Structures are given as structure tokens and as C-alpha cells.
């Protein structure tokens, strides 16, 4: 998802959510052979 692609959240809770979600996404991606990002309907191959 694109939670970390926007502006810096105004609250500490929002920043923590963004950071924790980023760590979770990185951990999931580390277990995958293929990693894709879809932006505006376009598929970008990040790995694989």
C-alpha cells in the first residue's frame, strides 16, 4: 500500500502507524520471491 508515500502524519500515533506498517510490509516482502507495486493501475516489479 502507499501509506508511507504521502505527507508526514501530524500525530505521533499516525507516524507510529506509518512506521510499523512499513516494517511489516518490508518483512512480508523479504519472504516473497516476487514483489510488485501497483500505482495508478501500472504494475512495477520491485523484485522477481
Automatic annotation (TrEMBL):
Family annotation (SUPFAM superfamilies): P-loop containing nucleoside triphosphate hydrolases
**GO BP annotation list:** cobalamin biosynthetic process
Pathway, per record: Cofactor biosynthesis; adenosylcobalamin biosynthesis; adenosylcobalamin from cob(II)yrinate a,c-diamide: step 5/7; Cofactor biosynthesis; adenosylcobalamin biosynthesis; adenosylcobalamin from cob(II)yrinate a,c-diamide: step 6/7
Task: Name the chemical reaction catalysed here.
Answer: adenosylcob(III)inamide phosphate + GTP + H(+) = adenosylcob(III)inamide-GDP + diphosphate; adenosylcob(III)inamide + ATP = adenosylcob(III)inamide phosphate + ADP + H(+); adenosylcob(III)inamide + GTP = adenosylcob(III)inamide phosphate + GDP + H(+)
Has the keyword Iron been applied to this entry?
no
InterPro entries, A to Z: CobU/CobP (IPR003203), P-loop_NTPase (IPR027417)
What EC number(s) are associated with this protein in UniProt? 2.7.1.156, 2.7.7.62
Molecular function GO labels: adenosylcobinamide kinase activity; ATP binding; cobinamide phosphate guanylyltransferase activity; GTP binding
Q: Which keywords describe this protein according to UniProt?
A: ATP-binding, Cobalamin biosynthesis, GTP-binding, Kinase, Nucleotide-binding, Transferase
What family does this belong to? Answer: Belongs to the CobU/CobP family.
Described by its record, this protein's role is as follows: Catalyzes ATP-dependent phosphorylation of adenosylcobinamide and addition of GMP to adenosylcobinamide phosphate.
Q: Which PANTHER family match?
A: BIFUNCTIONAL ADENOSYLCOBALAMIN BIOSYNTHESIS PROTEIN COBU, PTHR34848
Q: What is this protein called?
A: Adenosylcobinamide kinase
Q: What is the lineage of its organism?
A: Bacteria, Bacillati, Actinomycetota, Actinomycetes, Kitasatosporales
Amino acid at each position: 500500500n502507499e501509506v508511507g508515500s504521502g505527507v508526514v502524519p501530524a500525530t505521533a500515533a499516525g507516524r507510529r502507524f506509518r512506521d510499523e506498517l512499513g516494517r511489516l510490509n518490508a518483512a512480508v516482502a523479504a519472504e516473497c520471491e516476487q514483489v510488485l507495486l501497483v500505482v495508478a493501475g501500472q504494475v512495477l516489479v520491485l523484485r522477481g
